[in-house]
Every structure is written in structure tokens, then in C-alpha cells.
Amino acid sequence: MSNQLLTISMITNEALRVLTNSLVFTRAISRQYDDKFAIEGAKIGTTINLRKPPRYVGRTGPALQVESSVETYVPLTLNTQFGVDMAFTTQDLSLNISDFSDRFIKPAIAAVANKIDYDGLQQFLNVYNMVGTPGVLSNSPTQAQSLNTILAARARLNQEAAPVDELRSIIVDPTIDVGIVSGLTNLFNPQGVISEIFKKGAMGDSTLGFNIMSVKIRHSGKQSVPLL
Prior knowledge:
This protein has helices at 8-22, 90-93, 97-121, 143-159, 174-184, 191-200; strands at 47-52, 72-77, 169-172, 211-214, 217-219, 222-224. The protein is an alpha+beta fold. The chain folds into 2 domains: 8-36 and 78-121, no CATH class; 129-224, no CATH class. Strands 1-2 form a two-stranded antiparallel ribbon. Strand 5 and strand 6 form a beta hairpin. Helix 4 (143-159) packs across helix 5. The longest helix is centred in the middle third of the chain and has 25 residues, at 97-121.
């Protein structure tokens, strides 16, 4: 009986699965679906509008004051294409999908995920809010300073009326992650969290109001250090 060759559809689905699991920074940002992509025969082109939630003023007193629910938009131009091209033989296609993924898909997708996260992290240049000293959290001389920097970031988000939910994230590089772990383990004591930190040697979800994730990005031989 002849071998069943892998199809493009199988390879694409596996590549998307690996990409989703490889992203760090990008996984923490909003990825709401826009129904404009589903309009047949009416392509949206290279510019899309990102919807922003409406903002309300509120009222004082018992009198009804109905406010308009206005959703504003920010245009985003899709002007970057990045990919990895590779060639493989019919013999390679005779592998099972897990073997093919380990040998070809994962190394290729690693480069794509790295590029996506790198480009996203460079948007810190467009954000004027900042707390602490960028890139030196792990060098804080006291545990309290590490804690205060994270709490200051939380306070700044609150001041800017950012939603208080489980979507708040802090993305750091591995060196800063070490500083956070060593600086915070003795300052609070939820046993489940401490146990996970001890086993993984890294911060996990829902710590001090944030999901703390570690990412190491390299691009063109230079390391990009995510900032708080």
C-alpha cells in the first residue's frame, strides 16, 4: 500500500497551530474579528479601520441624559509582507505530520513568529506613557523597587482608563523575568502561585494584576528588550 502524502492544507493548518503557540507578545494583544473581511466581492484593500470602544461622559442628577454611542476608528495600513520559503521532496511529504512539523515547519515558523513579535514590540516608540527605568528592572537593588515598578505600571493604566480585566499583560525579556521572580517571591504568598514559580523558575498568569510573559527577540543580530 502506497504512503499517503501530506497535503498543502494539512501543512498550512499545522503551521498556523505552531505559529499560534509560538507567539508571545502578539498573543496578548486584541485580535477581534472584523466582519469586513467576509464581504464577498468587496475587498477592503490594504487599509483597515481598527474599532475603538465608545467613551461616555456620564450625568449628574436624576434627569435622563442619553449619550450617543459613537465608535471611533484608527486606520491601519497593511504594508508589510514577511514569510519563509522552503522546498521539500515527495519523500519528505510521506512523513507523518508531527515528523514533518519538527523537521521543517517549526524552524520556519520560529522565524515568522519572531518577526511578528519584534514588529509589535517596536510600537513602544509610539507610546508616550512610561514608568520606571526601561530595561533595568532586574537590577533593582531592593525587592520593593521591583514591586513598585509593576504596580506603577498598573496605576498608569488605571489613570488612562484602560479596562481592568484579565487581558493586562507585561512582556519582559528573560533577564528581567529573573529579577521579577527573585524580587517578588517573598513579598506575597499565594501557595499555588509560589509553587508554579518554583517549578518553572518564571512568573505565570495573574500576578499583581498582570499576565507576565517572557520573550527573547533577536532581529538583525540585535536584541530587542521589551519595556514596561
